[in-house]
Amino acid sequence: MNILVLNAGSSSQKSCLYAIDNALDDARGSGLPCEPPEPIWEAQIDWLPQEKSARLTVHTSTGKQLKETVAACDRADDRADDRAETLSYLLSLLTHGPTQVIASLEEIDVVGHRVVHGGQDYSESVLITPAVKAAIARLSVLAPSHNPANLEGIALMEKLLGDLPQVAVFDTAFHSQMPEVAATYPGPYDWLAQGIRRYGFHGISHQYCMQRAAQILQRPVDELRLIICHLGNGGSLAAVKNGRSVDTTMGFTPLEGLMMGTRSGSVDPGILIHLMRQGQSADEIDRLLNKGSGLQGISGISHDLREIGEAIAQGNPRAKLALDLYIHRLKSCVGAMLMSLGGVDAIVFTAGIGEHAPQIRAAACEGMAFLGVALDAAANENAPVDTDIATVDSAVRVLVIKTQEDWAIAQACWQLIG
């Protein structure tokens, strides 16, 4: 079975093709994923709005590679068509040129989409129908940078592949069974009836890392208490107990919680009221919180920790404050997850920063020394993915896991279609 996965982010579009055989049958019902296979084709589009272009990167399991930059439209009313045209071109590289891996798109059996917001409607992956598309569109107001892009990908697949089965895998689904006390905001009770509640995000990643952690530790999922740190340009923590999410840092939207690359994370809502009374519009405040805050906003340099590190080495005080603040907020949120669990068996670091920033892992774990958390310094500095970097006598295991959202989406497609 050939499974195409489309994973649309706010600033990028990842795509990959898996050729799946019957190996997944053995993993069904086991509660553990089988070893993630390598996609036969992987690609990414990075949208570069300031340069009015898009950077395409493609590589295959046989070692073929392609890198290309294509012009992108700078008019807002044409951006959706432009993104669809760029994605369509990218998918043509499946069947043409040096990165060809299949003879035609008709060889694709199913398409899986990461859909960021499923609201209260969806607690598991589903086949995409007109009703599902309508729900994704309705929920776009809660994920305006993501759900519209998901719908664009679905529409493009319908155009290119007709009535081929498509599957929506929701980022909110894993958190949909959080206890009511963790999902409810302390505002008017009527908010719940309006759908104003804590949903949580990065659920595909958190669920995969939960399963992978159980596999690495060789313990059943339903016996583990985990704090999973998904740290990328967007970031969230999840408290996972006995195989279920019991708390998480993101809430009604992906803005709550941790300080992130360009997002503020949680701030005093009184600040927003103050800014509105000073004349700033809702759109202006939305841009500030989502695009002009976090590491970017504090440092004034970049959302990228590597560039911030370079600035710190040159004595930049704002860069130093940005890093210190990031770590401070991370520790604070880890503490909240710890209290929701009442203890912890393992800390998991994943995503771009979690997998590749040993100084962040070390700083976070230093704050948990009172729990008996002890890092192996050498293992932390040179950590391969999917490994335990705690010392032998550490009371809590510390894992670095490569998140495999695309593989998790492929598995969901297999379970529904295979």
Largest sheet: spatial strand order: 5-4-3-2-1-6-8-7
User: How much is the average pLDDT?
Assistant: 90
- Kindly provide the radius of gyration, computed on alpha-carbon positions and rounded to a whole number of angstroms: 21 Å
Total domain count? 2
Binding site for substrate: 114
Active site: 171 (proton donor/acceptor)
Binding site for ATP: 14, 230-234, 304-306, 352-356
InterPro entries: Ac/propionate_kinase, Aliphatic_acid_kin_short-chain, Aliphatic_acid_kinase_CS, ATPase_NBD
Keywords:
alpha/beta; Nucleotidyltransferase, domain 5; 6-stranded mixed beta sheet; 8-stranded mixed beta sheet; 418 residues; single chain
What can you see in these coordinates?
Homodimer. This protein is an alpha/beta fold and 418 residues long. It is built from 15 helices and 14 strands. It has 2 domains: 2-170, Nucleotidyltransferase, domain 5, CATH 3.30.420.40; 219-400, 2-Layer Sandwich (Nucleotidyltransferase, domain 5). Strand 13 and strand 14 form a beta hairpin. The radius of gyration is 21 Å and the shape is globular. The model has no long low-confidence stretch (mean pLDDT 90).
Topology summary:
Layout: E1 2-8, E2 12-19, E3 41-48, E4 53-60, E5 65-71, H1 79-92, E6 110-115, E7 126-127, H2 130-138, H3 147-161, E8 166-170, H4 180-183, H5 190-193, H6 203-217, E9 225-231, E10 235-241, E11 244-248, H7 269-277, H8 282-291, H9 294-299, H10 305-313, H11 317-341, E12 346-350, H12 351-356, H13 358-366, H14 377-381, E13 387-388, E14 397-400, H15 405-417
Parallel strand pairs: 1-6, 6-8, 9-12, 12-14
Antiparallel strand pairs: 1-2, 2-3, 3-4, 4-5, 7-8, 9-10, 10-11, 13-14
